[in-house]
Amino acid sequence: MEREELAAFLRSRREQLRPEDVGLPAGPRRRAAGLRREEVAALAAMSTDYYTRLEQQRGPQPSEQMLAALARALRLTATERDYLFRIAGRNAPTPVVAAAHVAPALQRVLDRLSDTPALILSNLGEVLVQNSMADALYGDRSHLTGWARSEIYRWFTDPAERRIYPEHDRGRQGRALVAGLRAALGSMGPQSRAGELVRVLTKASPEFAELWERHEVAKRFVDHKVLVHPQLGDIEVDCQVLFTEDQSQMLLVLTAPPRTEAAEKLQLLGVVGTERFDSVR
């Protein structure tokens, strides 16, 4: 672990970022143009003391999970992320960690979306990051680990995952998820994580195995759908998707036409928050 270089690199990346780069207000009385240590710590979901010790060459060796969180918070490119791992004394990110690194271009767009649900997903349906409005709509998924991070896996193994869709639309959604997974398999190959997920679900779910035999291939999102909120009821939303160049990640934005009932319900999400999930799961 190269403590001096790690500290200098973290400090340099932090000082080069502006609050607006990460969706934060500049606020008054800001002496330096860059981010404060406490802001980076909050973005990385770690204590300010822990992050400060890293910059002061006093901290313990960060885990892979901590480094991945720092790379995301500091909006590092894939090359910068790999460099961060190396100077921290860790091997190059594993395929799982690398796949979870949010594309900076998508992150910059997400940072500017605060008044409507928006989230960034991998092509295996893993939520990499989502804003507070998406938290209120879908629930906080940051605690999920392993295959449970994939909405495709949860759909076929956890009945509760289907509650957010009207019953009459669940068949279409299941087919869409499987078709999207086949598209991911085509680009990633049978020995990839996509292939592994197919093998896991084929054993775990007869429904998945049956749908897989249809050999349908398609992108997973439709332009218009209805989502069900336990307190607000049905919400009709339009879905817009922005893909990275390699199609490995996507930014999903949910909106509703102005002055409609659906638009009012989306605004109420900010009031309802995520507390309702405690009582339904």
How would you describe this protein?
By secondary structure, the protein is an alpha+beta fold. It folds into two domains: 3-99, Orthogonal Bundle (434 Repressor (Amino-terminal Domain)); 104-280, Beta-Lactamase (2-Layer Sandwich). Helices cover 46% and strands 12% of the residues. The chain is built from 14 helices and five strands. It has helices at 3-16, 37-43, 48-55, 64-73, 78-87, 95-99, 104-111, 132-138, 151-157, 170-188, 193-204, 206-212, 261-272, 277-280; strands spanning 118-122, 127-130, 224-229, 233-243, 249-255. Strands 2-1-5-4-3 form a five-stranded antiparallel beta sheet. β1 and β2 form a beta hairpin. The radius of gyration is 20 Å and the shape is globular. The N and C termini lie far apart (42 Å). 31% of the residues are buried.
List the helices and strands and how they pair.
Layout lengths: L2 H14 L20 H7 L4 H8 L8 H10 L4 H10 L7 H5 L4 H8 L6 E5 L4 E4 L1 H7 L12 H7 L12 H19 L4 H12 L1 H7 L11 E6 L3 E11 L5 E7 L5 H12 L4 H4 L1
Antiparallel strand pairs: 1-2, 1-5, 3-4, 4-5
Helix pairs in contact: 2-3, 4-5, 8-13, 9-10, 10-11, 11-12
